[in-house]
Amino acid sequence: MQDNRHHPFRDSHQDREAATHIPDTPQTRAPSYALAFADEDFLCRPELRPVRLQLELLKPEMLMNEAGIDSTIVLFGGARIPAPANKDSARTETLADLSKYYDEARRFAQLMTERSLKSGGTEDVIVTGGGPGVMEAGNRGALDAGGKSIGLNIVLPHEQAPNEYVTPDLCFNFHYFAIRKMHFLMRASAVCVFPGGFGTLDEMFEALTLIQTGRMARVPFLLFGQSFWEKIINWEALSDAGTISAEDLDLFRFVETAEEAIAALDNWDGKGEKRGLIPGR
Q: N or C: which end of the chain has fewer CB within 10 A?
């Protein structure tokens, strides 16, 4: 047997395997006898919530580090927005009209991934929620360019399976929305928000709040579809009421096309100084 001074103890995999070959007795069948780290019922107990939170933070972090992901471009947007080829199946005329943003998201992701690949493919990697609609378009555009992309899926009561364009080794699944949101922003060098519903609004306002309060670096923040956003949110009313400062309206910009978005990224004041959530906060 090889002497390994750095790892003198038995490997956890070895003991987990060995535990499957023990004699079958009332004692070994008892739940208390199962190895704690291999006991799914134990890990799902309410008291283990802090451990589960830690695991959901660690697993994607470790795998993205191993994949060399240095920074990301975040794409938020509606799961119900169809590809233009399928817009006749949209539940409303407005959703059908918004299908143009599927193409813009796909084109934007393709162009940004092509640019990323020229410098090694580890910077500005596209990350989406991994689902359908705008998320699918983002992952699809990255694949069109021959690059990788990240999908941060979450277990929901209905639908929700990762779209087929996410890079398999960078496709993650979450139980906790809070940890998923952290992974969206920890490496973010830019945030791009397309039309969407409650989930998109939640992600957009949380990211804006983090920037507004200095808990996150002031990365480029783009909203695709000015008419949509100004119709559903009276931004000026927030400023006029004093519930936000007038300068808070400068935290984001409106764009319409992939090319316009890239130009905005390239001309953003302070771009490249910092990114993502500020360490230690």
A: N
